[in-house]
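Re: Re: ligand-bound prediction request (bumping)

Still looking for help on this. To restate: I need the protein modeled with NAP bound, output as structure tokens. Inputs repeated here so nobody has to scroll up.
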Amino acid sequence: MSKISMRTPLVEMDGDEMTRILWKQIKEELLEPYIDLKTEYYDLGLPHREETGDQVTIDAAQATKKYGVAVKCATITPNAQRVEEYKLSQMWKSPNGTIRAILDGTVFRAPIMVRGINPVVKNWEKPITIARHAFGDVYKCAEYRVPGPGKAELVFTAADGTEHRQTIQNFTGPGVLQGQFNLDKSIASFARSCFQYALDTCQDLWFATKDTISKLYDHTFKDIFAEIFEKEYREKFEKAGITYFYTLIDDAVARVIRSKGGFIWACKNYDGDVMSDMVSTAFGSLAMMTSVLVSPEGNYEYEAAHGTVTQHYYRHLRGEEVSTNPMATLFAWTGALGKRGELDGIPELTAFAQKLERAAIETIESGVMTGDLVGLWEGEAPAQKVTGLEFLRAIRERL
Ligand code: NAP
Ligand code: MG
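Reply:
Sorry for the wait, this slipped through. Here it is.
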């Protein structure tokens, strides 16, 4: 059998610990035997980030801008303990944060659904994708603990010196204060990423805020989405047979629970933080959650939603057998390869990515799975617990 050839390289970002091991196994077992794999390799493993003064992370992000599609392994975000463990010269920033700052854009998270692992919400038949605006609001606010009586004001000094001033509260005793902001530019790029991704995946888009209470702040989000939709996307949505739907956040929560799934739910930063944990937990397992960063210029970076699975790695280093689920990491690869095939007009590549996803899902549906899924399993076939590598080999056989 001849291998599928590629035209443009994928930006490959290697990572750390258990996922670094799975990364290599996925390539060897499921990709290299079938594809003449073309990648531009960046080692984002913590030792190499240290060696390069984290320049490698910046280079990888720039390469993503150049080529358009990247696939990333989970990486360690160092804390004090990691500085000690890896003898780091400094506490390097989160690679995901660095990449997001360079590419901009929105993170879309969606669960991989298989028959036999049922969402806690009975009527969810299709995945729900959460699109989180990862900028501003409470994550970049100024706070003040009010010690006692006094007047709090909101003051804006324009570049020309003119001042806007309004009273927030006349305090008669102690309390708290918070100042939040967002930018039209960031909200607009959030909106465009969401509309674009809805078209890419042919799903309806929902967006919700609390605009009835926050008549300026939240309403600005609503207005910018509406304006961009009317000007740039209404026709495209009609052609694709999908809809854009705006409602109040409380109404959205109720509708999401009663829905069958199969749509994208765009959330402001805080709502997305909270709701993505709720949705992913209700769908089953963190190891079955995919994640893609879509930039407003149309660059894509695919990854798993989970981390480097440190506890499994330490057990692996002690020589114990571990059963780590490679599904989300595998789907990062298939997502990236499928997108590359689409952009370069290589239908065999896109078809291969789809077949590989199908084979992986069917492997679980046949009862072969990693340990994390065994407790969730409600399928007919008895659950057979295997290691990550055995699981990949079972997929290969089915493929
Ligand atoms: P984690 O790696 O996601 O693992 C947390 C726990 O979830 C694991 O101990 C395991 O539970 C379960 N789990 C996650 N993925 C699994 C998989 N594929 N198969 C089976 N079980 C899985 O989170 P963490 O332990 O908080 O973080 C570890 C490191 O990852 C940290 O250094 C953090 O900075 C980094 N991190 C990176 C990213 C990223 O690169 N995107 C995201 C998050 C965290 P059991 O132990 O109960 O089996
Ligand atoms: Mg959270």
